[in-house]
Amino acid sequence: MAISDMSQTDDNISGAVTQLLLKEPFFAHLLGNLSREISNRTPTVALEKTQGGYSLIVNPEYFDQVLTTREQRVAAIKHEALHFVFSHVFRAEKFEHQEVYNLAADLVVNQYLEPWPSLPDAFTLELLDEVGVWMNRDESVEYYYEELLKILEQNEGGDGDDGESSGVGGMLQESMSTTNQRGDHQFWANQSADDAEQNQHDDMLSQAAQRSQDWGKLPGPLQQLINAMLERREPQVDWRRSLRLFAASSGRTSVAHTMKRISKRYGTRPGTRIKRYSKLAVALDTSGSVDDDTLSTFFSEIHSIWKHGAEVVIIECDAEVQQSYPYRGQTPQDVAGRGGTAFDPVFEHLNQNRQQQFDGCIYLTDGWANTPEVRPPCKVLWVICSDGTDEYVNFGPAIQLQD
Question: Are 341 and 348 in contact (CB under 8 A)?
Fold first, then answer.
């Protein structure tokens, strides 16, 4: 493939994303989190789950020549973004008939391509309506999958009147054989989502929603999906108040200049404000008794702590400290540990690293371990999962999350 061809395709992709940014920022910000691959591995445009995230694969000949207008190119990449929103990429293995699932997934996303045009040879509800098959709008992929299966079964049984069923079934057979002319689903096979991947998926949707602020204008079913995701990630603790208490007990402050305030001394701008430091060690219990669902809940709380302005350093620990790293808004793919549980190693770690000057330690755990005996160098707040216990905690108050 010539470098000039790849450059043209990359420019066309960037131009399509820019058009989305102007009219539908949510999808543009979502696509910004996907890596790009210009490749002949797909005959059209495809979405692939990779080890590091998700990749948008674009065939240059299809994107530059078959799609002749910028509007069609926008529709093509929005089509893949919609598959991502609906989690189609890692739901395929739940459906026995893969080709029918591909068509059902396209029936879902093609309803929401407006204001962009349909893609060439698109499989849509309007196409089915033309051949006498009516289906509800705004339904799930499961609904369309079952309806399409019924049509195929009727066709195989030869129960159609005057050949009508046979004609519709033949159209479906042809559509299944030419799926890759509309959008390539070959990379969906054998994909499933564990809790870490579901977290990553939700992270990307959440970031797109926060950056765009326009997702409230999306069609109802898409809003419901995003609302459900945001509710799953909603923290239970009022971290704004909790962090204010941590900051109030810290003696470390700095003076910041701001145009929003008038100097009390000179009566001019800029004025000054006192900025309190809030650097927190967040101890994460990664023992075997803390399951993936609980870890997902813990990371929702960590994200809220970070979002409210605290500098967060995560300390993963089961029976010993496994690793320590700054949190910057991204949930890790995996955690280290899964052994027994002990609290003292975290407090020993904090004492050995006093130079980091933590203002406090928030310990996320199920609470099932021996009472700690090592006194930490800072104040501690325990956050206990819903089925945990605060019987064995020490050196600070505890908050129990709800189920």
Answer: no
* Residues 274, 264: Cα–Cα separation, whole Å: 13
Q: What is the pTM of this model?
A: 0.61
CB half-sphere exposure, 139, CA atoms < 13 A:
14
Residues 319/279/239/329 CA torsion (nearest 10 deg): -80
Q: How far is CA 335 from CA 145, 195, 285, 338, in A?
A: 36, 12, 10, 9
According to DSSP, the residues that pair with 254 across neighbouring strands are: 275
Of 348, 359, 352, give the one whose Cα is nearest residue 381.
Answer: 359
The alpha carbon of residue 166 and the mean position of all alpha carbons in its chain are separated, in whole angstroms, by 42
Cα 226 from Cα 343, distance rounded (Å):
37
Give residue-wise pLDDT tens across range 219-254: 888 888 888 777 766 666 767 666 666 655 554 544
Residue 198, burial from CB neighbour count under 10 angstroms (0-12, 13-18, 19+): middle
3-class DSSP assignment, residue 55: strand
Phi, psi of 299 (to 5 degrees): -70, -30
Distance CA 343, CA 340 (A): 10
All domains of the chain in start order, with CATH: 3-191 (no CATH), 239-400 (3.40.50)
pLDDT tens track for 107-144: 999 999 999 998 888 899 998 988 888 999 999 999 99
CA-to-CA distance for 402 and 220, rounded, in angstroms?
29
Determine the 3-state secondary structure of 39 from DSSP: coil
Q: Judge contact between 245 and 360, C-beta under 8 A.
A: no
